Every structure is written in C-alpha cells, then in structure tokens.
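Ticket #4471: structure export looks truncated?
Reporter: QA, pipeline team
Priority: medium

Steps to reproduce: submit the single chain below to the structure queue and open the exported record.
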Amino acid sequence: MKILSLDTSTDVCSAAIWMDGAVAERFESGNRHSELILAMVDDLLAEAGLALTQLDAIAFGRGPGSFTGLRIAAGVAQGLAYGAGLLVVPVSSLAALAQGVDAPKVLAALDARMNQVYWGAYRKNQMGIVELEGDETVTTPHDVVIPEDEGWTGAGSGWDQYHIILSQRLGNGVRSWKQQVYPRARHVAQIGGVLFSNGKAVPPELAYPVYLRDKVAEKKQNFP
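Actual output as written to the record:
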C-alpha cells in the first residue's frame, strides 16, 4: 500500500509517504505551510520514485486544529487527488497526535485559543492503532474529562499551554504528560492506511476539514 499524507493542522507542517510499512517524512515548524507543503510532496515523490497516479490514496489531517491550516491540507489533498484520480482519507489530527505517543492510553489536547482546547481520549488496540473513546470535542480546560480508569498520558499543545489546569482537573487519572508533541504526517499515513483498508476513503469532493468549534456554535444557536 502506498499512501501520501499531509498534516498542517498546527504550527508544524509535515508530509509523508507510507509504502507497505516503510515511511519517509518531511517535517518543519513555523507558519509557512502554504509555501512548504507542495515542495515537500514533490521531494518525497522524487525520493520514492513514484508518480501520484501510482499511489493508492492521499490522507490528510482533517482537524481539529488551525482553521487556515486545515483548509490548506484539505485543499492540497483534494487538488492532488482530483488530478491523479485518487480517493482521499480524512484522518483526525487528534488521533494522529495520540498515535505518535508511546503510551497505551492518550488524552490528546490541542490549544484551540479563546481559553479552550480540542481534545479526545484514545486507546491503542492490539494492532497498536489508536481508537477514540467517546467523542472529540472543544471545551475549556476546566471541563475536560477522561474515562474512570487511571494511567492516561497527556500530550499536545493543549497540555503545553494548560498543563497546570489539566493536571489539577484530572488528578490521578493522568500519570504524566509529554511536551511539544504535534500531529505528524507519518502517523496520519499510519492511521490512513487502516481506514483505507476498511473502506473509509472518500471522493475528493467529500474530503472536508473538521473544525469542531463550528458544531458547538450550531448547538448554541439551536438552544438559545
């Protein structure tokens, strides 16, 4: 299986090619996603000796995360997939973040600004792939919850920004938290390969970003 993957959901920009378990990745920090991402893709394809049409699918970090970053990844994935006649695999950026943490249970949290965090609780299955427990959501750090069992590991920019509040809130449920962990394209590809095999790929026109905050706004409008 050959999957090209992208993630621009945070301050980090990355692209990767996953080829039957082997992965090559480009990874840079800084808010220059629109300048970097296509050059990364071209470089990876050249290194692998592949044309876009030889890929099985394109996976991208669909969010939550930076609104601008999510639109960049979705737009690039859609454009490349249209041109090459490929399907697209949207992958949760929170799941990709959790996949990159060496722990069986991860509370992934991204800084959502406005004193909020995007977060989700993930357990790794027997294949080592994360599975969401409950829902991904956006709340204040004071409102984050985890399943009742202990031994969770925190990670993500939400923890970098609000680790004091989150640690006090979650107590013994979280045993530790890891600094400076971001969603990466290599993990988007890893999850994307599983989703592709399970028939979860979609046509390019249905590959949408997921913002989460929009859903919250809609709920508030329905219940004034």
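Status: closed, not a bug. The export was complete when the record was re-opened. Leaving a note from the reviewer for reference: Helices lie at 33-48, 67-84, 93-99, 157-170, 185-197, 213-222.
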